[in-house]
Amino acid sequence: MAHLLSKSVKQLVRKETLAAQVPEKQKSLLALKKEHGDHVIGNVTIDQCIGGARSVKCMVWETSNLDPEEGIRFRGLTIPECQAVLPTYSGVTGDGEPMLESILWLLLTSEVPTKEQVDSLTADLHARAELPEHVKTLVNSLPKDMHPMTQLIIGLNACQTESQFAKAYADGAPKTDYHIHALEDILKVVAVLPEIAAMIYRNVYFDGIVTKDTSLDYSGNFCRMLGYDDPSFDELMRLYLCIHTDHEGGNASAHATHLVGSTLSDPFLAYSGGLNALAGPLHGLANQEVLKWIQDLKNKFEAEGKPVNADTITEFAWETLNAKKVIPGYGHAVLRKTDPRYTCQREFALKHMPDDELFNVVDTIYSVMPDILKEHGKVANPYPNVDSHSGVLLWHYGFTQFQYYTVLFGVSRSVGALSQLYWDRALGLPLERPKSVTPEWLWSQVKK
Ligand SMILES: CC(=O)SCCNC(=O)CCNC(=O)[C@H](O)C(C)(C)COP(=O)(O)OP(=O)(O)OC[C@H]1O[C@@H](n2cnc3c(N)ncnc32)[C@H](O)[C@@H]1OP(=O)(O)O
Ligand SMILES: O=C([O-])CC(=O)C(=O)O
Q: Which CATH class is domain 1-39+60-431?
């Protein structure tokens, strides 16, 4: 087994923090199952069975929980609470956005880390970030017109040669040790994703050169590798990477990771499954679709000599809806209020770019879209989700290649989906295999 973990991470994450929690949590879950296993927590209707299992409670998720009204809580903390207590790059809590390493520590251990712990995690992630040569060769060989998400998935799959979990399994490791081997892979996946992502960005849009700066934190180094050198953009990346990490278990990317991982596929393969789900336009790809929608809107009205304002946005929204297409960035399978991830990005914009043209377009869309969607009458949630805002913030810094945006989401989501995968293995969660039914069986139930 590789022992790349730095001493402090080894002590704090594995030996003291995580290892101490595992037996307690195993005991508690076992007691739930043994003593209350037949306790009913919900019914399933035909509507839910046909309708994508909305609200069906059938998965345990340690790392976060989503309330339809309030939005996400990471280990019990709202986004503003995370911003108030998690270590920042400046070292002064509350001064700047939380570091990605802070939220990784929180999601994995459920504890708010110290700056020292976070710094040790930064060093650990940098230390294990080296990409195998075959991965570099492969990613550099991919066609520039292949979608960046497809490239990311290929790159991550190719890294599977490094899996300690797969090796340990093949060597006959006992199931009680799976989580230890999984953690090695989980930290490796989180560590390598930025460089794969940066290679794709630099290959597709620029000169292919990726320059690291490991004196910085995970997000800062990622920004340099992408080719950005602006402390304000670094802060945006910290915020971006933190808020996209986790959204409880039922979302498609987290669920896909959990499902694939439940077959004891290693974390590389499991998270590649998650990325495949994230690449769909109803999920993570919506962030590129939002920018495309705004550009189409601007192009149309500029060509007609009309301003982009509440009236023209309303006209364009109805055109989209009447063409039986969705308004990207609006609606949600669980949320019934404005996504707090939208709100914190709006606050970032108000602080850093209040006069930005596209931010003002997004703000105007927000002022009219909920009423349009209510009038349309189909949508359960007429309010904006996270994807509605992320693109315009990137655009402000010259990051205009919107076909790439979901890759950033993919780097971030690894942290939540894989922190949970650690617990999946630590708690010994079994193969996921729900029961499907035929339409005939459903009819037979109704006729009974
Ligand atoms: C990170 C994330 O994944 S956040 C979500 C990102 N996705 C988007 O922004 C894409 C636009 N939004 C949507 O397509 C949806 O709101 C989803 C996929 C997010 C949620 O889907 P659901 O839970 O099925 O939503 P809901 O129950 O409101 O759907 C009811 C109807 O309203 C439609 N609807 C939902 N949202 C929208 C929208 N933004 N624009 C137009 N129609 C919509 C649905 O397509 C559905 O129509 P149908 O009855 O003809 O099939
Ligand atoms: O929760 C969902 O279904 C989609 C979402 O917002 C996310 O995964 O971040």
A: mainly alpha
Distances (CA, A) of 419 to 58, 182, 189, 249, 407: 19, 10, 11, 11, 19
Specify the pLDDT at position 11. 63
ipTM over 0.90: yes
Query: How far is the first Cα of the chain from the last one, in angstroms, to the nearest whole number?
Result: 57
The token pair that represents 4 in the structure block: 């790349």
- What residues have CB less than 8 Å from 144, skipping those under 6 apart? 203, 204
- Average pLDDT over the chain, rounded to whole? 96
Task: Look at residue 2 in the predicted model and tell me its pLDDT.
Answer: 44
Q: 12 falls in which pLDDT band (50, 70, 90)?
A: low
* Cα–Cα nearest to 25, from 61, 67, 55, 51: 61
CA–CA separation, 189 and 194 (whole Å) = 9
Helix (H, G, I), strand (E, B) or coil at 64: strand
From the CA of 283, give the closest atom in ligand 2: 4
At residue 223, does pLDDT exceed 50? yes
CA distance 90 to 87: 8
Contact present, 200 and 80 (Cβ < 8 Å): no
369 Cβ closer than 6 Å to some ligand 1 atom: no
Tell me what pLDDT residue 24 has. 95
How many angstroms separate the alpha carbon of residue 127 from the centre of ligand 2? 31
Could you give the 3-state DSSP secondary structure of residue 168? helix
How many whole angstroms from 380 Cα to the centroid of ligand 2? 15
385 Cβ closer than 6 Å to some ligand 1 atom: yes
334 touches ligand 2 (CB under 6 Å): yes
**Whole-structure pTM value:** 0.97
